[in-house]
Amino acid sequence: xxxxxxxxxxxxxxxxxxxxxxxxxxxxxxxxxxxxxxxxxxxxxxxxxxxxxxxxxxxxxxxxxxxxxxxxxxxx
Length: 76
Known about the structure:
single chain; mainly beta; CATH 2.40.50; 3-stranded antiparallel beta sheet; two-stranded antiparallel ribbon; 1 helix
């Protein structure tokens, strides 16, 4: 049985940058993971972490062996 992938990355988006999602300008977030991979995912996946200051923190995303989204959590 193949293990799920866990990808860690830092994300720092201002509130105004995230606002572009609601205006239809941006749909995806693109970051460089700790292992050097560039990953892109729908911005809605991190919406629950949005504050007045934006989205800031260190996150871990879990994917299936087929690269299907499972979850995302804020580590700090």
